[in-house]
Design brief:
247 residues, 9 helices, 73% helix
Length: 247
């Protein structure tokens, strides 16, 4: 139980994936902040001056960058053991972040973006952006985030927190961003996403509730995937815990 998850090959592969994820996400952030220059396209100046900070995609990029940076630091100074006697703080932070925000938010961003894109790309990524927004950056922000987080689920063990603790953290994060979208609206007079412009207030309320339910459902998907991949190790942990309590 105290051994590191997997052998040396898996350990090296896990670290390599995490480093690649860091490079991918930080590169996307740096390019979006320093080199991306998209015309206003008739949207007001107050909205434009907020830059990338108004998009959940950018919030997620920052979140994923922070998460995988913590993963690399955990590889260096933390622990990848299944059941360390005294889990380092960085390991506890890493595990909690993956379960509560890193997995569900990345999947939410990717699935909602490509889902709306398939229905009507003008609602999320108008064709007018194509000359200014590189396709590789689009995939860095909306495709790679899902690929790397799924690889992390497969290559790294963690025990999920209680559902109340996990969904509470996720809901809090999403509510903070929702408040931010309203702050932007009242500041600029425009909605961050074009899809919100075509909805009335009642439809917007339903839209937000459905999305909040959807992102919380992805928390349970992550929990299920984790149990499917790491079921044997989780059962061993439970038996060891029961044995200790009985003694």
């Amino acid at each position: 139980m105290e051994k590191e998850v997997g052998g040396s090959v898996v350990s090296c592969l896990r670290t390599l994936v995490r480093i690649c994820a860091c490079v991918n996400h930080w590169l996307g952030i740096v390019y979006a902040c320093m080199y991306l220059n998209v015309p206003n396209f008739k949207r007001n100046d107050r909205l434009a001056e907020l830059g990338q900070s108004k998009y959940l995609t950018f919030w997620d990029m920052c979140l994923q960058s922070l998460y995988f940076t913590i993963c690399v630091l955990n590889d260096i100074a933390g622990s990848n053991e299944i059941a360390p006697k005294n889990p380092p703080l960085i390991r506890r932070i890493k595990d909690y972040m993956l379960c509560t925000v890193a997995f569900p938010v990345s999947m939410f961003v990717g699935l909602t973006f490509w889902g709306l894109y398939a229905i009507d790309r003008e609602l999320v990524f108008p064709k007018a952006l194509d000359p200014y927004f590189p396709s590789w950056l689009n995939h860095v922000m909306h495709t790679n985030i899902m690929i790397f987080i799924v690889l992390e689920m497969v290559l790294s063990f963690r025990k999920y927190p209680t559902r109340g603790n996990g969904t509470g953290g996720l809901t809090a994060f999403m509510c903070v961003y929702l408040v931010w979208t309203f702050i932007i609206y009242f500041y600029s007079g425009a909605w961050v996403y074009p899809v919100l412009e075509v909805l009335n207030w009642g439809q917007r309320a339903i839209f937000f509730i459905v999305l909040l339910l959807f992102v919380n459902s992805l928390y349970f998907v992550g929990e299920f995937v984790n149990k499917t991949i790491w079921g044997k190790e989780l059962r061993q942990l439970e038996r060891a815990g029961s044995h200790k309590r009985s003694n």
